[in-house]
Automatic annotation (TrEMBL):
Function: Component of the Mediator complex, a coactivator involved in the regulated transcription of nearly all RNA polymerase II-dependent genes. Mediator functions as a bridge to convey information from gene-specific regulatory proteins to the basal RNA polymerase II transcription machinery. Mediator is recruited to promoters by direct interactions with regulatory proteins and serves as a scaffold for the assembly of a functional preinitiation complex with RNA polymerase II and the general transcription factors.
Domain Mediator complex subunit Med16 N-terminal: 124-395
Family, per entry: Belongs to the Mediator complex subunit 16 family.
Gene: MED16
Naturally occurring in which organism (per UniProt): Tribolium castaneum (Red flour beetle)
Name of this protein: Mediator of RNA polymerase II transcription subunit 16
Length: 810
């Protein structure tokens, strides 16, 4: 369990040391939660923006896991936060407190540092203890019988799983189920964007009479119901389980709760040492967690006191009970099958439990994979096997106060303790928040086969799973070793190329994003990452341009204009004007106003062709499997297709043509580029000398606009991380210099990496990607349908898959 980083509040030496110590000794409730898109939400009980603030204030902050020091406050609350819960997509964040306030937030226009309140309601006087968003009914797992299959469709399968609440037509509803300490259930049905109906809310008692609850957890049943395990904290009382169903009836929500089997911790065998634990003063049940979030049949319970703790796992099992001979009908012994809670295993430790976490995803359906992670009052963190609670690995979080400018030996003993922990969705990262509002991150062992270190096949399988399920893979990137990167990249490429063409086409953009993110982790891979990023943009522009083409006749469904263009390009013609003679002009006609709005994309395609050709004389055939855009026949043919389209559209609207500064006014640059690229495609590994000579002349014939690399900010997923001594000591809202890229481009202009426009030296406000540092303008340009569709393609995330963050320069 490598300790990767610690993020602290800013030091304020003017604040009295004794006051700081007194403030940290106060009992605080801080929480943290990681979304499926690897965005972290955490609560604090003071303002981390104000250095040395000693005023109580319950706040909720969000940050991206790739740059967790860049935090944004979304809420300042009057009561302590008791629940932080993300939905499955990572879009909605539910925040609830000890006074019954419920708020659901969403990132406005998918901007990470701009959040809007979607819904707000209150359960007066209720302390909200636990919450879960409705299940969408989608569940993808690794097929254990065919996990070595080459095809994704066989390797991964959709598990039959019902959604929590069905709407008209069987569509899954969006909403949440909440539980309070007084045993009240509350369901909230979020209004649809197209509906005029407001939020639908319903409340119901969990048990026949209201009961006091101190610890609880919610998981999803495969038939659309919820399973709740609750305890009032008393060791002599049972752990009670309930089956809760929520259904929508017209404009109302109906909650039904059914009591299930319960069990006592004292029913465990003597080796569980419950008698020894119960004799301790203030011994109580502190935490309950279902072993899995979906379709769980096991629960882990912690009984704890100040000096000793015991974790127990109980499992629902079918058991055959003998029927008495006087009740049976035959002389042979008869058995009656029933379901009972059975004790499985336990783990004991001589300290109080402070937090408990279990894996969020079950990658193998009905096969227990993953861990139970427990933290204790001595700040030790224990990673345990989920089925046996056997010790796998452990570490201790060492916390040094940073408020004093004194030698380490003179530091007083601090009372800073671990408050809460959470695992990333893929289970590679453990996030820890302490009572002083500091964040810590640890590496976890592999989820499926923990007996071996992180392996290339395992990492490739997880990347493929992310491709199929839509989960973010950043937490995997943070735990990879540098020596694995090339092998993972090669294995991922080989497995992707074995897929059917329809599957490749559907996942192609995400596949390229994964390869780019892997290449960016090494110093040697930066050039390859840049080439792949340019190919991804070229692929996107090609898709956008071809989507504008329409067949001229309704009967010609057998071959689209894009297919006709690809067939003509494949013939190897080097004269662009002769290519036009083989194409139907009507099929490539586009509205002139649309063409004008695409001019900046057309200019980028032409600039890319120039930049590639001018690099040809200096490039050498690469040994091994190193990717070069200049040697990619598929990319070069795609570029040739785009040049043909530009040539045709230039006849319709000359103003949309790319602009070149030429030494000879009569030079036809587009025809020259097409001819040179066509000759290069014929032999990419050994181009002839005359082609190289012509490429050498290009800079003297036309001015070449060199591409500006994206301004890569300081991020964790970078080559600099492996060069540092861990754990990194970071500070909120302060970019770490140790993670800054040494190869600074020194660019004087900010370039929009989506629209390919120059935004000036310091634009007032831009969107910046939290992963690659790419920029995008916020001011709308000419709004034709085509350019609007292009902007919406990148509205949710950058081309690398990273989220946008608004950057304002004053």
């Amino acid at each position: 369990m490598d300790h990767i980083f610690t993020i602290n509040k800013k030091i304020n030496k003017s604040v009295d040391t004794s006051k700081h110590l007194s403030f940290t000794k106060l009992e605080k409730s801080t929480l943290c939660s990681i979304s499926s898109s690897n965005v972290v939400a955490f609560s604090t009980e003071c303002n981390i923006e104000e250095a040395g603030s000693l005023f109580w204030n319950s706040n909720v902050y969000v940050c991206d896991l790739n740059s967790p020091w860049q935090v944004h406050k979304i809420l300042s609350n009057s009561s302590p936060i008791s629940v932080l819960q993300w939905d499955f997509t990572g879009d909605l964040l539910l925040v609830a407190d000890e006074n019954g306030s419920i708020k659901i937030y969403k990132a406005k226009d998918h901007i990470l540092n701009d959040w809007t309140l979607v819904l707000q309601t209150v359960l007066e006087g209720e302390h909200i203890l636990s919450a879960a968003f409705f299940h969408s009914g989608k569940k993808i797992c690794l097929n254990s019988e065919k996990k070595d299959s080459a095809l994704y469709t066989e390797k991964f399968h959709h598990v039959k799983f019902a959604c929590s609440v069905k709407q008209f037509g069987g569509r899954p509803a969006s909403g949440a189920l909440l539980l309070t300490t007084t045993g009240m259930l509350c369901s909230i049905l979020l209004p649809q964007s197209t509906s005029q109906v407001a939020m639908v809310m319903a409340t119901e008692s969990l048990a026949p009479t209201r009961i006091f609850i101190k610890a609880a957890d919610i998981c999803y049943g495969k038939n659309g119901h919820f399973l709740l395990a609750v305890s009032n904290g008393d060791l002599s009382m049972p752990i009670q389980c309930y089956k809760v169903s929520v259904r929508k009836a017209e404009d109302k929500c109906v909650i039904t709760s059914q009591s299930l089997l319960s069990f006592f911790l004292f029913e465990a065998p003597k080796e569980a040492l419950m008698e020894q634990v119960s004799k301790e003063k203030n011994c109580h049940i502190s935490h309950i967690k279902w072993i899995m979030r979906e379709d769980a049949d096991s629960v882990v319970v912690s009984a704890t006191s100040d000096k000793i703790s015991c974790l127990q796992v109980w499992e629902l099992r079918e058991k055959a009970l003998p029927v008495h001979k006087s009740l049976g009908k035959s002389e042979t012994p008869q058995f009656f099958n029933t379901v009972l809670w059975q004790y499985q295993c336990h783990f004991q430790y001589n300290s109080r439990v402070t937090s408990l976490a279990t894996s969020k995803l079950s990658l193998l359906n009905n096969v227990s994979s993953g861990y139970v992670v427990a933290t204790f009052a001595d700040n030790s963190i224990h990673c345990l096997y989920r089925d046996t609670l056997k010790h796998l690995v452990s570490t201790t979080l060492t916390i040094c106060p940073r408020y004093f400018d004194e030698p380490l030996a003179r530091y007083p003993k601090t009372s800073i303790k671990i408050s809460n922990i959470d695992m990333s969705w893929l289970g590679n990262i453990l996030l820890v928040i302490d009572s002083d509002d500091s964040l810590h991150m640890f590496k976890l062992p592999p989820q499926i086969d923990s007996s071996t270190p992180l392996s290339v096949p395992y990492c490739t399988t997880i990347l493929e799973y992310c491709m199929m399920s839509g989960f973010d893979w950043l937490d995997l990137l943070l735990v990879l070793r540098p020596g694995m990167l090339d092998a993972i990249c090669d294995r991922l490429t080989e497995s992707f190329n074995r897929q059917p063409s329809a599957v490749q086409q559907f996942f192609y953009v995400q596949y390229l994003c994964m390869k780019i993110s892997l290449c960016r982790l090494s110093v040697q891979g930066q050039v390859k990452a840049h080439d792949l990023a340019q190919f991804l943009m070229l692929h996107s522009i090609s898709t956008a341009f071809k989507s504008l083409l329409r067949p001229s006749e309704m009967s010609s469904h057998d071959k689209s204009p894009a297919d006709s263009l690809a067939n003509v390009i494949a013939e190897g013609q080097t004269d662009v004007d002769k290519v036009l003679m083989h194409l139907e002009a009507k099929e490539f006609t586009v509205e002139p106003s649309t063409l004008q709005s695409l001019q900046q994309l057309i200019q980028w395609v032409a600039d890319l062709a120039l930049n590639l050709l001018v690099k040809l004389p200096d490039s050498r055939p690469s040994m091994g499997k190193v990717y070069e855009l200049l040697r990619d026949v598929k990319a070069l043919n795609m570029l040739r297709e785009m040049l043909v389209l530009i040539r045709i559209w230039g006849l319709l609207r000359p103003a949309c043509l790319p602009v070149f500064i030429k030494s000879d006014g009569s030079l036809d640059v587009l025809a020259l580029l097409f001819r040179l690229l066509s000759r290069l495609v014929q032999n990419v590994n050994e181009p002839d000398d005359t082609l190289i000579d012509e490429c050498c002349l290009l800079p003297s014939q036309v001015q070449i606009q060199l591409f500006q690399p994206s301004n890569n900010r300081a991020v964790l997923a970078s080559p600099q991380l492996v060069q540092q001594i861990l754990p990194l000591q970071l500070e909120y809202n302060n970019d770490p210099e140790c993670l800054m890229s040494s190869t600074d481009s020194g660019a004087t202009q900010t370039v929009d990496s989506i629209r390919h426009l120059y935004l000036g030296r310091t634009p007032r406000a831009i969107k910046q990607c939290v992963r690659c540092g790419g920029s995008a303008g916020t001011i709308p340009v000419t709004r034709t349908a085509a350019i609007r569709a292009w902007d919406q393609r990148w509205l949710r995330s950058c081309q690398c898959g990273g989220l946008w963050r608004m950057q304002v320069y004053t």
